[in-house]
Amino acid sequence: MKAHIRNSLAAAIxxxxxxxxxxxxxxxxxxxxxxxxxxxxxxxxxxxxDDEHGAIALxxxxxxxxxxxxxxxxxxxxxxxxxxxxxxxxTYTAEAHLGVRKVFDTPTGxxxxxxxxxxxxxxxxEVRIDGSxxxxxxxxxSGWYGVGTYFALTExxxxxxxxxxxxxxxxxxxxxxxxAGTMGGVSLGFQW
Length: 192
Known about the structure:
Layout (H helix, E strand, L loop, with lengths): L2 H23 L3 E13 L10 E13 L5 E15 L2 E19 L4 E20 L2 E21 L4 E10 L2 E4 L2 E4 L2 E11 L1
Antiparallel strand pairs: 1-2, 1-10, 2-3, 3-4, 4-5, 5-6, 6-7, 7-10, 8-9
């Protein structure tokens, strides 16, 4: 993954962590921050043989207690790598999903949610064949919507699951790459 993508994700994670800490200190705010591990299937015809990307995400929602919905700020990194002899094929996306999330409390300890919004996506493909390196990247804006749940293990610690659909198409190496599909995973998080 290129340094600018890693640096952007690191800066965004640091900013979200600061917001989370500050929000947790204010009694009138409530929210969740979770680390998610999962996968995102990619059409095999588009990114040859890289039909499933591993995914890592920071999922955050926060709101004042009087608000009906939370602000959702979710950061995803997906990618895969394939080697064939000395040749290497790397594909990555960095995604910021911004929007709203409605969290429903239940008496069972589960908090079900649904949400949606805009997805800002950067896709990158790096191909190394016979010592030659070709890099291609493109950006797109699309939409996302999803459902999930948090389950409170303690007053502040949660486990959960998230499934969402994300659209999008980019052009890499003069080919249109369809990024649309469902991604999902399991999470461990903090609620305040």
